[in-house]
Amino acid sequence: MSDPVSIVPRPQSVIGHDGEWLGTKPWETLRARLDDSLGANEYLLSVTSSTITLRAGSESALADGKNTFAQIIDGAEAGVEKESGLTRYRIPCLEIRDQPKYAWRGLMIDVARHFVPLDQLKKMASAMALHRLNVLHLHLTDDQGWRIEIDGYPRLTEVGAWREQTMTGRYLGEETPEGEISYTSHGHGGFYTQDELREFVSYAAELGITVVPEIDLPGHMQAAIAAYPSLGNNPDTQLKVRETWGISKHVLGTGDAAFNFVRDVLEQVCDIFPGPYVHIGGDECPTDEWEASPEAQRRLREWGLERTREIQGRFTQHAADVLRKYGKRLVGWDELLEAHLPDDALIVTWRPDHSVAEATARRFQSIVADSNRLYFDHAQGGRREPLSIGGKTTLKDVYTYDPVPAELPAEERALILGVQGQLWSEYITTSEQLEYMAFPRVCALAEIAWGSPRVSYREFLRRLRPHLQRLERRGINYRPLS
User: Fold this and answer.
1) Which of 98, 110, 142, 149 is catalytic?
2) Percentage of the chain with pLDDT > 70?
3) Domains (ranges, CATH) in the chain?
4) Chain-centre distance of CA 423, in angstroms?
5) What is the pLDDT of residue 5?
6) Residue 418 CB-half CA count within 13 A
7) Mean pLDDT computed over 248-263
8) Is 3 a catalytic residue?
9) C-alpha angle with apex 311: 369 to 222, nearest 5 degrees?
10) Which residue of 205, 237, 273, 278 has the fewest C-beta atoms within 10 A of its own C-beta?
11) 344-370 pLDDT, tens per residue?
C-alpha cells in the first residue's frame, strides 16, 4: 500500500480509508489527548470524513503526532475560498499508528565559532520539527566565542563574545608558521541574552523540541579566560579570544575561582533551560597547563589523585553535583570516559572506533554522533564544494549508516538512547551556508533516528525529491541532489 502523502521520514504503519476529508481549519479540528492504552512513545492519528483525532502515550508522542499532521497538511492540495478567504485543504482519510526507534533524535548547532542569529535558530528548529527531530543541542561556548549572558560575569559577553579577526583557509595545526595563516579584516561576535534564550526555548518547545545547552568545560575555555584571566592557570597572562581553530591549551585552573565559576554558570543555565539535560562538553582537554602548574599539582595531591587527567574528572563530578541539585542530568562527549564520571552521565560518542562499545560496555546510556557519518561540517561531494573542515560525508553515507555496531550485545544496544548530527561552524559563516551543509543530509538523519524502513537508497531519493519542494517553500537552502 502506498503512502497517502509523500513524507520524510515515512510512517511505519499507514492504513488508508475510502473517501477524503475536506476542511477549512484542520488545525482547529484536530482533537489531541493522552491515552494510557498506547505506548509511551506511540501516537495514533486518525482522519475520517468528519473528524481528526490524535491520541498518544506521552506529551512527546503528541508532539510527534502533531508534526506528522503538519507534514500531511503541508503536502495537501490547498485552495482559497473566494467568499470566506479561508484556505481549504484536501487530505485523505487515513490512520497512522507509529512510534520512533530512538527517543533522542538530535541536531547540534555550533554557535560559538560563528554566531547564529536567533531568527535563524528558529528557522532551523522549525525545519527540525518538519523531520520529527526533537533535540536541539546548542554549543554555546568555546575558545573562539562565549554566546550566553551570565549575571555577575559581564566580561563574558563584553570581551569573550568578540574576536578581533578570524583565520581564513583550512587550519593545518599549531605547527603552521604564523605567516602562512591569513585573517579576515574584521571582527566577529555576538551573544544571546537570557531573555532571548528563554523565548527561544519556549518557541522550540511548541514544536516538540528540547533545547540542550552546552557549556564546554574544563577545556575549550579560552574565551572565558580571556574575559577573566583569574579563571586560568596563568592569571598574570592576558589572553585574547582565540582567532584560529583547533584545540587551545588554555584550560580552567584548579583554584576556587574556577570551580565557583562553573557553579555560577551552570546554576543560571539550569534556570534558563527547563529541559532535563545540560551538556558540559569535556572533549579535547589538554593537560599541559595542569602538568606545569604547581597549584594544579598541589590540588591533585590534596584530592588524593595520582593522574593529572583526573583533574578533569574532578570538574565533571563538580558539574554533576550542581546539575543534580536542579534535577538535571549531565551530558558530555566521550572523552569523559577517560576520567572518573557519575554513573548517570549520558555519553555522546563522536569518535567512531570504539567509543560506543566502550560507553555501553560500562553501562552508560549513549547518543551516537559518529564523526565519520554524522558530522555535517564535512564536504558533501568533490572539489566544487564550499571550503569545509575536511573529509567527505555524502547523503548516501548518512542514509546507509547504522548507528548500532553489529557486534554489540542486545543489552548494550538498549543503552543507545539516540543519534545526532553535528554542524560545527568553523567554516560555516552564514545562515545560507548553515542550511546548505545541513540539508538534505538532515533528511537522511531523520530516517535513521525515526527508524523508518530503509528499502534502498534509490527508493529514498524517490521520496526525497518531492520533499525538497517543501524545503524550497520554506526558503531553506539545500545542496541539490547529484
Assistant:
1) 142
2) 93
3) 14-98 (3.30.379.10), 104-473 (3.20.20.80)
4) 8
5) 35
6) 20
7) 98
8) no
9) 65
10) 237
11) 999 999 999 789 999 999 999 999 999
- Annotated active-site residue 385? The verdict is no
More confidently predicted of 4 and 235: 235
Task: Give whole-number Cα distances, 233 to 220, 257, 300, 302, in Å.
Answer: 14, 11, 14, 17
DSSP H or E stretch at residue 420 = strand 416-423
Active-site pick, 114, 220, 250, 467: 220
Confidence check: pLDDT of 28 > 70 = no
Each residue of 436-481: pLDDT tens digit? 999 999 999 999 999 999 899 999 999 999 999 999 999 999 999 9
Q: Can you give the chain as a three-state secondary structure string? A: CCCCCCCCCCCCCEEEEEEEEEECCHHHHEEEEECCCCCCCCEEEEECCCCEEEEECCHHHHHHHHHHHHHHHHCCEEEECCCCCCEEEEEEEEEEEECCCCCEEEEEEECCCCCCCHHHHHHHHHHHHHCCCCEEEEECEECCEECECCCCCCHHHHCCCEECCCEECCCCCCCCCHHHCEECCCCEECCECHHHHHHHHHHHHHCCCEEEEECCCCCCCHHHHHHCHHHCCCCCCCCCCCCCCCCCCCCCCCCHHHHHHHHHHHHHHHHHCCCCEEECCCCCCCCHHHHHCHHHHHHHHHCCCCCCCHHHHHHHHHHHHHHHHCCCEEEEEHHHHHCCCCCCCEEEECCCCCHHHHHHHCCCCEEECCCCCCECCCECCCCCCCCCCCCECCHHHHHCCCCCCCCCCHHHHCCEEEEEEEECCCCCCCHHHHHHHHCCHHHHHHHHHHCCCCCCHHHHHHHHHHHHHHHHHCCCCCCCCC
Q: Specify the DSSP class assigned to residue 479.
A: P
Which residue of the set 95, 199, 264, 284 is catalytic? 284
Average predicted confidence (pLDDT) for the chain: 92
Summarize the confidence of residues 247-276 as an average pLDDT.
98
pTM: 0.94
pLDDT score, position 84: 74
Average pLDDT of the segment spanning 327-336? 98
